[in-house]
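Reading is simple: each integer encodes one residue's backbone shape. An example follows:

___
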Amino acid sequence: MTRPWEDMLTEVDRMVIQKGGYGKKRGLGKKPALVIIDIQHNYVGANLPIADQLETWPSGGGAKAWEAIEKIKKMKKLSDQLNIPTIYTRNVQKKTINFDSFAVKAERDNSKYIDGRPEAQIVSELEPESKDLVVDKSYASAFFGTPLISYLVKMGVDTLIIVGGSTSGCVRATAVDAVTHNFNVAVVEDCVYDRIELSHKAGLLDLWMKYCDVSPSEEIYDYLKQFQEGGVKVEG
């Protein structure tokens, strides 16, 4: 199986990975949750080549984001069928102040990112259902300054299946923090996206080498289907 980052690697890179023993499977647990990162209009943009939608959606992922969304919809449907909980995140600002690192580093109209603006809402194609949890955050990691860890402990979750965007930003930060908190983690390589192709591939490579499982959606479907007889139920 060809991995997304392989065309970036030099022969020396390949030697480092082989000799260093990187990229081994960590494995997944018995109580998964699906975590959908920042599928908001601001960060998804229009279903056009990314260059064609930048004037309207400068933070949008464009067509590649929408390709991922189609696969995320299938993952969400299967998770619902198996009673596997879904947790959405939204990256929003509560005030008109550049308090997160992305806002400070990116020159943009920050009024579009304020909570309550339509641009900050999750796209209707993946709108959360009443049973789903939605975690608002202001920084890259879904764990920083949020109740996410408490929700996961309450539900008895031991595994996070992470999808959404962007690969090198909020997906990577959430995955690294999840592993740091001793959760099993899989980032679904064809259900994540980034604005910069280099960032996408390097982010996946880094996660695969050092932190978590990076798997195609077909492998995750097979993993989830083992919960056909029950699955994890959210405790109210």
